[in-house]
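Q: Focus on the shape:
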Amino acid sequence: MKLFLLSDPNNTHTHRWVTSLAKHDVDIFLFGLNKCDLKVYEPFGNVQVYYFDYISSLNDRLQNGSFEKVKYLSAIVELRKKIKEFKPDILHAHYATSYGLLGVLSGFHPFIISVWGSDVYCFPKRSFLHSLLLRYIFSRADKILSTSRVMANEANKYTQQRIEITPFGVDVNLFKHKYVEKSNKEFIIGTVKTLAPIYGIDTLIKAFKIVHEQNKPKLTKLIIIGEGEQELELKKLVLMLELDDVVSFLGRINNSDLPDYYNYFDVSVSLSNSESFGVVAVESMACECPVVVSDAEGFTEIVENMNTGIVVPKRSPQLAADAIQYFIDNPHARAKQGKAGRERVCELYDWSENVRSMLGIYCGILK
């Protein structure tokens, strides 16, 4: 099978799809709009990567509300040339309102679109024209995919097509419980998120302030992994709340190293204001780390409240603090919910099964 992928080559999700599909003897041509380090794809002889170096960050431009489609449409000439040379069986675009539009303009079929989140939650709400453009893109796709049911429901506001669910799970052989040395006197609260307002890191810091003051004899610490536009603002909040000696900002951590951190955490907390699919919750649960999450739809689809974690209302530091305190006071519940979380991930979000499901979709559309 020859697969032509339209996706950001720098994105971790893209890298995981490409490298996993390549291991199943799929010949892949990855076409991106951003500069990338080609070395990460070099180990795979059946993967070709080409980037049309035109813009520095398409996603940033979209999030900033810039309607700059015309500027990168010049890439369509090069795209058609590469499609003609590669002669793919399938064209698959990841992210509907950028790479999806390029896929439409390429004219190639069969054509698949995977929605990622802001392309259906944010883009069409900017104006009537944005909504029309998304409807048009969807109308040209032979199949539309979503990582979660809640995001599929959102996408269905702009198309009547049946949307297939393709969870973005985890490698359960990498993300698993293991011993990590740490002090029994410490209780470690951790989060792995982009430092942006939508992900509620400020709510977590305020919740941690409450927890820290309730547990003076017990050393509570907060570890924040990630980078983003809100980093300086969040660090100022930590200083204002006099938490700088117990809150650590570690920046970006390689995905392969994250299992060590999830196993170091006593609880993993994600308090997003909006979430299309909670990958971090899945990764934490796979490592048998109990989770506290907001009631953003992407989390409620994954986490069973009081069985595989605790779900709290968005933007509620006090209720988030109460949930964290529950795990501090009940170590047995931490262990029980951690194991239940692992079982749920193995049943629904095993990456190897997710890849096989995607291959099945490809074979089905070719038939």
User: Anything to note?
Assistant: The chain is about 40% helix and 15% strand. The mean pLDDT is 92. The first strand starts at residue 2 and ends at 6. The chain has two domains: 2-168+350-366, 186-348.
